Amino acid sequence: MKTLGLIGGMSWESTAIYYRLLNEIVRERLGGLHSAKLLLWSFDFAEIAERQHAGDWDGAGLLLVKAARKLEAGGAEGLMICTNTMHKLADTVQAAISIPLLHIADATGHAVVAAGVKRPALLATRFTMEQDFYKGRLADKYGLQPVVPGRAGRDMVHRLIYDELCQGVVKADSKSAYVEEVGRLRRDEKIDGLIMGCTEITMLIGQGDFDMPVFDTTRIHAEAAIEFALS
Fold it and tell me: Residue 186 — very low, low, confident or very high, per pLDDT cuts 50/70/90?
């Protein structure tokens, strides 16, 4: 089994979910006392979020590259950035290391295509919904047509991620707001699936809330990583 290096803490709420999922998947595959071989670099998320909202992506990139190099030096054979948003810097990180970076959008794109979905809604941070690093990859590599909410919807989704989910706060009215937004997109934009494109969103909504395919990027990423680790 290969050792995976995880860049986490963005936020630690979803990193904890990654840790559990990676070990559960290994146990499902191998049985007995088997668990995943993992190295974790966990950031103080306040330092990352400050740079995100200031538009200091170069500064954030330097921090991620430092973490990636330390994980590689520590013995990691494959790298995971445990957040969708910070895949904005995936190319920068990959260029700085010699081990493969397991890209969350590629794992997600494969899963969406396999399900026969063409026009998925994308709920995520404002950075992921508004910039092209994620939507463009899904469109260019996988022929998908990602749909994001309008301005008010994007603001609501982003605010609840940072003000609530990243701080471990899960509210029923926030869940209702997400479900209503997806319903609006289904009615007005004819979406045929939903990508939960922020690793914290799995704390709030899931497949049971909708009657169309829902793609939990945290689980999809973890499953793809274990496929790599066991190959």
Answer: very high
